[in-house]
Amino acid sequence: MRRRPLLYLVICWVIGNGAASILPTERLFTAWAGASLLLAAGMLPGWWSRKHIILLWITLTVGGAYWEWNDLRNESVLPEALGWPSARLEELAVHAEGTIVSTVERDGDRVDFTVKLEKIRSSGGQDGSLPVGEESKSASLNRDGTSGAAGTAAQSVHGEKIAVQLKLQAEQEIAAAATWRRGDRVALDGSLASPSGARNFGGFDYREYLRNRHIHWTLKVAGTGQVKAVPPETLSLRKLLRWNDAVRAELGAELESLFREKDAGYLKGLIIGMQDELDPETYRQFSRLGLTHILAISGMHVAVYAGFLLFVLSRLRLTKETALTVTLLLIPAYVLFSGAGPSVVRAGVMSMIALYAARMGVLKDGMHILSVSALLMLIWEPYFLLNVSFQLSFLVTAGLMLYVPLAAPLVSFLPRRLGSAVAVTLVAQLVSFPLTIYYFNQFAALSFAANLVLVPFITFAVLPAGTAALLLGKVWPACAGALARVVEIMNDATFDAVEWTGRYAGITIWSSPSLLWIGLYYALLYGLLRVLKHYADTHHAPLYADDETRPLEGLRPHSNPRHSAAALPGDHQRMRTLTRCRIAAAALAGGLALLLYMGYRPERLSPEGSVNFLDVGQGDSILITTPGGAHILVDGGGTVSFGKREEWRIRRSPYEVGAKTLVPLLKKRGIHRLDAVILTHGDQDHAGGLQAVLEEIPVSALLFNGTLAQREEYIKLMKTALERGVRLYGVHRGMALSPNDSSKLSFLWPVPIKQDGEEIPVLEEQNPASVVFRLDMSGRSFLFTGDIDSKTEESITAANQSEGIGGASAVDVLKAAHHGSKSSNSAAWLEYWKPSVSVISVGAHNLYGHPSGEVLERFIDGGMLVYRTDQHGEIQMRIRDGEIQVRHKLKAGIDPGQS
User: Fold this and answer.
1) Where are the annotated coiled coils located (predicted)?
2) Average pLDDT taken over every residue of the chain
C-alpha cells in the first residue's frame, strides 16, 4: 500500500464498478458484505494498517455506489415526454430536434449517426398511425436553430441520445447526406423503434450495447427529405467538432485520390481512425491472426506521434521544458482528430500525465500513470468498463509493465533489441489471450509470429510513409504519388503475408470463459513467470555473494568449482533453490495447462444430449449435441434478398445470418468441429448461413438431399465444401446415422431420384425433396421436417405404414414443417406422429404470414405445447433423467428489455 497506494485504490474502484455492473442489487449487497469482511481481516497484525484498509473499503463502496447511481439514471425519458408507455412508442411517428454528436457514416443506402435530442413530439395521432412527416412536413430549422414546424407542442428532452438509421431513397441523396457533420443542428421526422435484444443464449445484445452508450431508441428515417440540418454559426465546441470532421473527411478524400480503393480504406483506419471503409475481407484476415488492434488508432499511434513531436522540437533547439509543454498541448488535438476511441483516449490521458510529470520533474512509475488514467476515464464514463477496447487497452498496458520485467530474463540469450521485442510481443499475447477468447472465441497459434513481424513493419514503415504521402499530397503531388506507390507495394506485401499466414494460422475455437477462469489464468501466469525469473536469476548469479577471500588449498588441480565434490559454500543452496524453482514451475505450468484444457472444452448443456433451435430469423438452424459430444448442425438459416439491388445500395458489410449470428454462436459455445452438417434442402433460408460455417468452422461431413439447384449461392456452398475437404453424402430414405450407442438418426425422406449417368440431379423445386429424419436420443424422439408439403407428408406416412412401422411412430417433439405454413402440417400428419411439443422456426414480423393461424389452431387442438423462435427466441431442449427440459431466451412475445 505504501509503494503504490493509488494502484490499490483504483483496483478497488474497478472491483466496485464491476461487481455493480454484473450482480443484481440484492446479490450486490451480499458481495459487498463479504468484501467488507475480507478487508476487515486485513487489519490483523502484520497486514496493512487500519487507515489503509478503511480507505480501500470506502473506495470499493463508493465505486459500486457510483455505478449504481449512474445506472439508475440511465433510463429513457421519451415515454414520459410523449405520454405513452414504451410498448406504445414502437413505430410511433415523431418529429425530433437536436444536435448530431457522432460522425455520420454511410454504408450503401444506409446512413447512421447519433443525435442528442432537445425536443420531441408525436407527429401523428395517439396511435402513431399517421405517415411520417404528415403533420410536420413543413418542418424546418431557422438560422437560429429553432424549429418552424407546426403541430403539437414539442417536449424538452435535453440529454437523451437517439441512434438515427436513415434509408436513402435515391442515389442523388448521397450528396446531401455527405454534408452533415457532427455539431449540426437537425430536425428529423421518422418512427421510433426499440433496439433488439439478444435472441439467442450468448448472442449479441444490441439493446445493451446501445444502452451502454446512453441510447435507448432508434429513429428510422426514410430519405434525406425528412432531415433538415443547419451548421452552427457561432464559435463553439460544436463548431470545432464539425470542423474536425470536415478535416478528417477531406483527408480521407485525399487518401482516396492517392491510393487504390483497398489501400485507401486500410490507411484511413491506420492514419486517421476512419474504419468504416475498411475492406471486410481484409478485416477478417487480420482478425484471424489477432492483428485488428493495428487497424485502429491506439496507444502505439499516440506514442509515435508524441515521439515525433519531441524529436522535431528538439531539432528546433527548443528547451526540454518547452518541448514537453508543446507536445502536452498538442496531444488532445490528435486524440480528437483520430476519433477519440477508448484506447486512444487512454493513451492520450496517460501521455499527458506523463509529460506533465516529466515537465514538473515528479515523474512517477508507469503503473501510477495508468491508474490515474483509468480512474479519470471511469469517473467521466463508468460504462467504459464494459468496452472491450478499454479493457484490452488497460490490461495489455498493465500486463506489459508487470510481466515484461519477469519475462525479460527468459529471452536474455537473444540480442538485446530482438529480445526486448520478443518479450513485449510474447507478454502482450499472453495478457490479451483471455479477453481475446472471451469476446472473439478464437486464437491463432501463429498470432505471436504475425505480431512480432508485422506490427513493427506497419508501425515504423507503412504508417510513417502513408502519413508522409498524405501530408505531401497538396504541396508536392509528384513526390506524394511516388511515395504512395511504395506504400501500396508495402501494403501488398502485408496483405499477402496476412493471407498466407492465415491459411496455416492454427485457429483454435474457445468457449467464453468465466471471470473466475480469467482471474486464475492471470494468477497462474504471474506465478509461473515469477518463478522462471527467479530460476534464471539464480542460475546466472555469481557463486558468491560476499567479498570474502577463500583459500585455494581445498581445490583440486583442474577441477570445476561449480561441479566439484568439494562443494563450494553456497553451491548446495543454489542447487536447492533451482530444484525448488523447477518443482514450483512444473506445478504452476501443470495448473495452467489444466486450466486451459477446462477452458477449451465445448459447452455441454446435458450429458444425455440436447437439441437447440437457434433463432436465425426467417429460416431454420438446429444444433444437436449427442451424449457422446458429437455436434450436428441442421441447416444454417440465411438472409433472403429480393431482386438485384442497384450498385450504390450494396453495403460493404451487409447483415448475413451465418457470419453475424450463427458462426459467433457456435464459436462462443466452444464448438471446435461439426461432426456433421445436414442441409435439408437448397433454399436460401436454410442453406445461406452454411457458407460462413464452412469457411470458419471445420466440418467433417455434409449430408444433403442428393440434388443440386441452379443457384449461385448453392453452387458456391458445394464448391467450398469440396475445397475444404468436407465429405459429401446424398442421403435418402432407409439410411441411418448413429453417432453413439444412445443416439440414432433415421432418414425418412427423400427417396432416391433415378437418373442416368453419375451426375447429381438438378432440382429447382427443393421443398418437396427436403431431408426428413427422426432423432432418437437417450429415450426421447424428435422429428425434423425441413420444408416438406402435405403431399410429401402423405408419401412418408404411406411408406412407413407399408413397412409396418406405423405403430411405433409417436415422437416427443415435432419441428413444424415449412415454418408453420398452411401447405404443411396436416391433421393426418399430426395424428400419425402424435407429438407432445411442436417447435416453429420463424422470423418475427415475416412477410409470409408464417405461422398460419389454421396450423396453430391445429397444434393447440391436438394438445401440443407450441414454441416459436419469433416469440421465444432460441429454444433449448435438454434431456436429463429421461425427461426433456425446455428453456428459451425470451418470454413469449416479449423481447428482453421490454419485460
Assistant:
1) none
2) 86
